[in-house]
Structure formats: structure tokens, C-alpha cells
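Curious: explain these C-alpha cells?
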Amino acid sequence: TVKLKKYNPINRTSNIKIHLLQSLAKGEKMELILQKSTELGITSITPLATERSVMHLKKDQTEKRLERWNNIITSACEQCELNIPPMLHAPISIENWIQDVLPTLNTTVITLAPTAIHSLGSFLKAFSMPEHPHSEDNSAQEITEHSFTIVIGPEGGLTEDEIQALQDAGAKSVSLGQRILRTETAALSVISTIQGLIGDWSTMTEMAFED
């Protein structure tokens, strides 16, 4: 049974759906990503097993680890007064996700690639332009109802084969610039950029600045 201590009717969920596929990272890094991405307004989190993942969960460890991660998410929700927590899915391999899960989703998949031609910022700005297939009539309503899935690699990055498999499945490869970011920095940077350019940060009432 669950005892309700306090209910806050104010809905603070983001106006745009952001799903994070985070490659498994070592202890504190993974917990930091879960905590901060929750505060930034993501919709769901899926731990991802990739070729270069430095953390590998055994079957008998998964349930206990998910319980701890859910507790971290709950604490983060309390911190930011979020009344609908993001969904934490069970870990899955990147191959199984591409093959079994992705075909069932209506989402724009974004992954980071060192050879990507377009920056994340330019991609998101183009996404909101009238000529973009997902932004007919440049409608803010259509943009905010859209879903983004972010695929973040581990400490060593996704392999070329993994990036190619994602691209073959329709993922858009983008860059965060010339500097190589840690996996936890990359995840939070992508979420923040989406929120800032087309998410709930971009729809807040603009302030009038006086000279």
C-alpha cells in the first residue's frame, strides 16, 4: 500500500515528450543522469546496453538497481515538484531496441555522431521551420506534441556499426560541437538544448528588458 502525503495538482510535465536512451554508465554517473534529466523534464528513461558500455548488469542485479534508480527519480521529482515522474524502463540492448521497440514508436530519434554534418541546434531550428515535414504551418501545437528520443552513447561512445544501425533505422545524427563531452554531460546538454529551443523553456512568457 502507498500512503499519500501530499498531492500537488499543478502539472509541471514538459510540453514536449523527450525519451532518453542512456547507455549504462558507472554508478554515480548513471545516478546523476537520472536525477538531472528528471529535473529537466524528460518523459521516460531506458538504460541501454551497448558494445562499449563499462557497466554490465547481471539478471540478479537488475531488479535491485531499478529500485534504486526509481528512488532517485522520485527524489528528483520531489525536488522540482514534478507530480508525474518519468517512466523508467528495464535495460535493453541497442540491437533489441532498434529491432523490437523502435518500429512501434512515433518519434524522432536523435543520436550524437562525431562525423555528423549538422549541429543539434541547427537541426532543431530546422525542425520548427514551415518546410519541415513535422512542422506544417509552423504550428507550435504540432511541435510540442511531437516526441524526441535521444540515444546517448557510453564513455567510449557508440561504435560506427551502432551509429550506422541507428541511421539505417531512421535516426538523425547530430553534433554538439568540436569538444568531446562525457556521457553525462552529453545527455543533459541535449535535453537542455531541446527544452531551450522548442520545449517548455522556449514557450515561457518573454521578459521585457528596459535600457
About this structure: The chain has one domain: 17-197. The beta strands are 17-23, 44-49, 87-88, 92-93, 108-112, 147-152, 172-174.
